Amino acid sequence: MTASPLAARQATLGYGRTVISEDLTVEIPEGEFTVIMGPNACGKSTLLKALARMLKPSIGSVLLDGKDIHSQPTRAVARRLGLLPQSPIAPDGITVADLVARGRYPHQGILRQWSADDERVVAEAMRATDIADLSGRGVDELSGGQRQRVWIAMVLAQQTPLLLLDEPTTFLDITHQIEVLDLCAKLHREGRTLVAVLHDLNQAARYATHLIAMRDGAVVAEGAPADIVTAETVEQVFDLPCRIIDDPESGTPLVIPSARARDRV
Amino acid sequence: MSTAHRAPDLAQPLAAGHASAGGASEPAPRSRTGRRVAGLAVLIGAVAVLTVASVALGARAMDLGQVWAGLTDPASDAYPVVTELRLPRTALGLAAGSALGLAGALMQAMTRNPLADPGLLGVNTGAAAAVVTAAYFLGFSSFTQTIGFAFAGAAIASVACYLIAGAATATPARLALAGAAVTAAGYAYVSAIQLMDAASLETMRFWSVGSLVNAHTAPILPVVVLIGAASAVGILLARPLNALALGDATATGLGVDPRVLRVAGIAAITVLAGTATAVCGPIVFVGLVVPHVVRAFTGPDQNWVLPYSMLTGAAFLLLTDVIGRIAARPAEVQVGIVCAVVGGPFFIYLVSRRKVARL
Predict the structure, then answer these.
(1) CB-based contact, B252 to chain A, within 8 Å
(2) Which stretches make up the ABC transporter domain (chain A) (predicted)?
(3) Residue A69 domain boundaries
(4) B-chain residue closest to A16, CA distance
(5) Measured between alpha carbons, how far is B233 from B245 in angstroms, rounded to an integer?
(6) Which of A74, B69, B93, B185 counts the highest number of beta carbons within 10 A?
């Protein structure tokens, strides 16, 4: 086994008695931009929750740096692993700078309050996400795209080598989706390991360096987009007949749903 | 979207005389901090002034010279009134007011519900049920006899709420539902006993309005120690509560275990509100209104909201108690009634003027 920073081992995942995934083993490769994709209810968000320790496997385990993530102090985990959940809540009246500053929580303690180092990291996170000029604004006044960049800045302020993002582009218009994904790609280029759940197959194929395709709680295919985004895999995962062409912009696989697909409705 | 941070003037009635920073629709973090520090100084000043007023003013009018003699000269006429009645009453007002303010702020932060108050955990009902039980089955009727029962009842009710809400799996919504269920059941029990027994009805009639009048017979030292310890725990929760304000998932990502935080929060709230309710009876509006007023001024940072709520709660309870003492001289109006009369309309005004701040 390669040294994967984050992995699920023979994990059974579910909510109460509802089992979503059984005996699921997934390794997140270090330094890659991994995208987990699949149809609705395929278990992709559940897998992300398990990797983020929000959900404890009933059987099996999730390993962070080779050790069970639930046996490590949660604040120590928070210094290794950042999480942007699907619908985070911005308290009323909070400013951008205050929200980003909350990302410093795992680095602070009763005796170690706000420091110059925290100040620097927060400023850096706001610069990286291009929101420095919004710092005094109320988060509730911002557009959806700006708000998502603020949340990403908060997770960046956590200074973790690993970032998990649960559907970071949902509810955004296309321009802001691309903006957020470009930002993710930049964070990846800077050396972070990213894991994101994405809905859009073509965006996944364009931005991911490693794809995990899921269906019915199981991994159907994984690997580089160029290798696994094939007409067969797409049909297998999504039940969607399609053709694959080269994306004229990026050269990555582009999924074109087949015209015949309409006849099935 | 509501804009809680744009209404600094709302804190004015309590932070009396504080220069408004109104008009600053986008307060820069620095000036906001300056404003918060200034506000804190004003609040401390207000609490000090009200403390003096609470010792100096009462059903029996006296000048400051007499008050001073009452504090320093055990032989003076005023000594029994000032030192034996007003001093413990003031101490209790400070302790109970800060406890209720802090408990309300913790409750709202923990449940992310702006309408939550400590009563949501069944604290008031639990205490009432215990008092009525003591009155009916044991024949206890005086305040001092029922303090221990009331505290135990409050604690049992909040633990019951927590367990019914699913213990470690409790969510804010389930806590609110469990609190409503426990409250309904508790009041049914209290009503049933009251209907059967006139003496219990009479005990409850006085207990249920909330008052500081029994302070001189209350165990002030244990009350202050309990509230002080629980306040220290509560204040330490400010930073994890700031993380929890971003949602359970985000809080987990930041290294806060929401389940552990809820247990600590419920424990602190139970001791704070349970102690205050046991000694004073239910005083409902402090825990609900004070955190609203405070957030309108400080913004959503719990590092400020919690200490501000303690001070504002203490100031509010002392103020309403003094008003109750002098409004109907030589009789007095219980603080619970004044709180409701002042707090009720104020709360309605607050809610109608702005949307209730989402937490």
Answers:
(1) yes
(2) 6-241
(3) 6-239
(4) B169
(5) 18
(6) B93
